[in-house]
């Protein structure tokens, strides 16, 4: 599992000293394998990896802050994203990121398991973009190191487990907050069903 006390390759005393709560859910996920060269090049600047894979994040400014220069920049960013979408749809780059769409996942503060349409090797680094429906819906960009990959069936794809690497404490806390929120929602639904039945 991806949130065991000491995942393979992790020394005692590193970030994952405690187990993390986990939850099964349906989440929107995009992913792409990162080459070792890309990972080493951007190891101290993960935002460089995410910009390369997913494009620059589109930040929505306050209305008062918009001027012509900023408006041009926003339109330009939207145009780059549209070009990226068209390239993906045209299949010009087989290494573009793939979207697992909305998938069943098992997620915790230390890693996650999801279904992919391709296999990965243990130790591969994957750039992940995950949509967490919190109070303000949040796209998170993370790096995961593959701890296991098993084919489910030719139609279902591969079950991939990753351990998050280089995860900031703020991002970890956001994931944990989401896990607890989702667990409470599921408990409420279960309780309501028992009351009705």
Key descriptive features of the protein:
197 residues, alpha+beta, 32% strand
SSE inventory with pairings:
Layout: E1 22-34, H1 36-42, H2 46-54, H3 68-90, E2 98-108, E3 111-116, E4 125-132, E5 138-153, E6 157-165, H4 169-196
Structure description:
The protein has 197 residues and is α+β, with helices and mostly antiparallel strands. 34% of the residues lie in helices and 32% in strands. It is built from four helices and six strands. It has helices at residues 36-42, 46-54, 68-90, 169-196, and strands at 22-34, 98-108, 111-116, 125-132, 138-153, 157-165. It has a six-stranded antiparallel barrel.
- Termini, distance in Å? 34 Å
User: How many E strands?
Assistant: 6
Helix-strand makeup class: alpha+beta
Radius of gyration: 19 Å
Percentage of residues in strands: 25-35%
Biggest pleated-sheet summary: 6 strands, antiparallel, barrel
By DSSP (H or I, 4+ residues per run), the number of helices equals 4
Low-pLDDT ranges? 1-18
- Average predicted local confidence, pLDDT: 78
Order of adjacent strands in the largest pleated sheet:
1-2-3-6-5-4
What string, H for helix and E for strand, traces the elements in order? Answer: EHHHEEEEEH
Shape: globular
Specify the helix fraction band: 25-40%
